[in-house]
Write a structure and sequence with these properties.
This protein is α+β, with helices and mostly antiparallel strands. The chain is built from ten helices and 16 strands. The chain is globular. It starts with a helix and ends with a helix.
Length: about 375
């Protein structure tokens, strides 16, 4: 008997409900690390589609193809050997015997790699996301921004008897009803270190209408546990063992400082009682926690170029699933761009402000909203 589109959709949503019920119990990192929770590598198993030329995925810049892991070619240094016998990307020292450590701010974590520059680690990061089943939509070493396409975590689909039989023929018809994307920010830290953060975004397909025959995609909260899982996988890519990576996550070092709002001439700014290097990183992480997307950044000028993110439109344009239903007829213009300025006011004080086109503090309601959002995230 043929299954109707509604029946098929019901099967997909039932699978999603079961998967979400399973994940609901994963309250700790140990729950996530206890078994294989991610599988994006098989997401592209459906038949090939005719994709309009204007939606073709851009080619990855071949200038940044990674050299062999242990070879010192170009800007890639030979891996260091730790006292535990690891061959790691980081350079071991008294504070970091493994050549790296994790820092945290609330539920956000980032990796600090000792003795390496962003340029030296960039090829490894490209390999990392490709090995985990993603293609890159943003690959900009000059700005330290790397973003993946939207992809489906096939591990969220239950392996029931129907999928093991009929599903072998039409497995592409099964869907978890969610799509994930990851953004990596790579920054030069203090004392010859590199800071690497990973931010998760998710969209979920929700049934609509009285008869539940149609659906729409809605933005879901980021998953800090999933971000931590990929940080652990990245540390393994950089030469640590599974146990060492988990231990560094457990021993994450707190890195927070209170932020004050300063108001003058109708415009609000933020004062962070820390150095520019640390403030630059924290502001970037805070922006990633809001609905404002960092399109570009200039560390020398201390400027983040941000816009309000419309995840629905981006999901339509990116990735395999988006190409199934994107009509290409959207007339919506890109969101307004804002300039978030991070400026040193001394060795242990940094000011953050939203600037207008003339380089002055922006007093518009949208700009002040960004300041308020940053204040909430940084505190």
């Amino acid at each position: 008997m043929k299954r109707s589109a509604l029946s098929l959709h019901a099967t997909r949503m039932a699978a999603l409900a079961l998967a979400l019920g399973t994940l609901a119990g994963c309250d700790t990192l140990n729950d996530w690390f206890s078994s294989d929770k991610v599988n994006y590598k098989v997401a592209g198993s459906a038949p090939p589609l005719a994709v309009p030329s204007d939606l073709s995925t851009a080619q990855v810049d071949q200038r940044y193809v990674a050299p062999p892991v242990d070879a010192a070619l170009g800007g890639a240094p030979t891996r260091a050997v730790t006292s535990a016998g690891n061959r790691t990307e980081g350079v071991p020292n008294a504070q970091d015997p493994l050549g790296m450590h994790i820092e945290r701010d609330g539920d956000r974590r980032w990796l600090v790699v000792d003795g390496r520059s962003p340029d030296q680690l960039w090829p490894q990061l490209q390999e990392f996301w490709q090995e985990n089943g993603f293609s890159l939509t943003t690959d900009a070493p000059a700005t330290g921004i790397m973003s993946t396409d939207w992809a489906e975590n096939r591990a969220n689909i239950p392996d029931d008897w129907f999928r093991r039989t009929i599903g072998k023929v039409v497995d592409f018809a099964y869907s978890s009803g969610t799509r994930d994307r990851f953004r990596t920010l790579v920054s030069r830290g203090g004392a010859d270190t590199t800071d690497i953060s990973i931010t998760h975004s998710q969209m979920e397909e929700m049934l609509t209408g009285q008869d539940k025959t149609s659906s729409r995609w809605e933005e879901r909260p980021r998953n800090p546990a999933l971000e931590a899982l990929f940080l652990a996988k990245l540390m393994e890519k950089f030469g640590l063992t599974d146990a060492q990576a988990k231990q560094l996550l457990t021993d994450a070092r707190p890195s927070t400082a209170p932020v004050k709002v300063e108001t003058a001439a109708g415009g609000a700014t933020l004062d962070l009682p820390e150095s520019f290097d640390r403030a630059w990183l924290r502001v970037g992480l805070a922006l990633d926690r809001t609905n404002f997307t960092v399109d570009n950044r200039d560390r020398e000028k201390g400027i983040y170029y941000v816009r309000y993110a419309d995840s629905m439109q981006e999901l339509k344009k990116e990735g395999f699933f988006g190409k199934l239903f994107y009509s290409g007829t959207s007339t919506k213009k890109p969101g307004q761009e804002f300039l978030v300025n991070v400026r040193s006011k001394g060795e242990a004080l940094t000011q953050v402000a939203v600037l207008d086109a003339n380089g002055q503090v922006d007093t518009s309601s949208d700009a002040q909203r960004i300041v308020s959002l940053l204040h909430a995230q940084l505190n």
